[in-house]
Amino acid sequence: MLTCQVCGVVDEYYDENSDVHHNDTPKHQANMILLHYKNNKKYFSKNRDGVIVLGSAEASSNKVPETDHVKIIIYVKPKQIVKFSFKISNDMKNEDLLVVGIHLAHPQPQFVMNDHPFIFGGDPHILSKKSTLNQEVSVEFHAQDIGQYEMPIMLTFYRRSDEKHIILIREMVVIVQEHEVQHTSKKSPYLNEDWQNADHFIQSITHVPYQIKFKIPKLLKVLLPKGLDEKALEGLQMPADVMEKLRLLLISTRAIFDEGATKNNYMIYFHHLLWWEEIISKINLRKYNMFGVKIENRPEGFFLEVPGLAEKRPSLLRGDRVYIRPQDNQTIVFESIIKDINDTHVQLYKMDQAFFNNYYSCDSLYDIRFLMSRVPLERMHEAVSTVFKSKQESRIFPQPVAKKVYLKPVTEFYNPLIERNQEQRSAVEHIVSGTSGKAPYIVFGPPGTGKTMTIVEAIVQLVAKNSKNRVMVCTDSNMAADHIAMMLLQYNKKLNMPNFLLRGNSQSREWTVMPSALAPVSNGTSFETFYSLKNTHVSMYRIFVTTLLHAAKYGSQRSQSEYKLQMTHLFIDEAAQASEPATLVPVTGLLSPKGSLILAGDPQQLGPVCISAEAKSRGLGTSLLERLKNTYENLYEDPDYITMLVQNFRSDPDILAIPNEFFYDNSLKPLAPLDPLSRVSVLGLPGGERALVFHAVNSREQRMGNAPSYFNEKELDMLKRYIKALIEKHNVASKDIGVIAPYIRQVYKMKVWLANEKYTDIEVGTVESFQGKEKRVILVSTVRANCRLLDYDAKYGLGFLVDDKRYNVTLTRAKAKLIIIGNPACLTRDRKWRRYMEFARELNCYYGAETQQLERTAELLHEVTKKRFDKCRLSDYIIPKSTNTPKKQSKSKKK
Question: Which positions fall inside the DNA2/NAM7 helicase-like C-terminal domain (predicted)?
Answer without folding.
Answer: 621-824
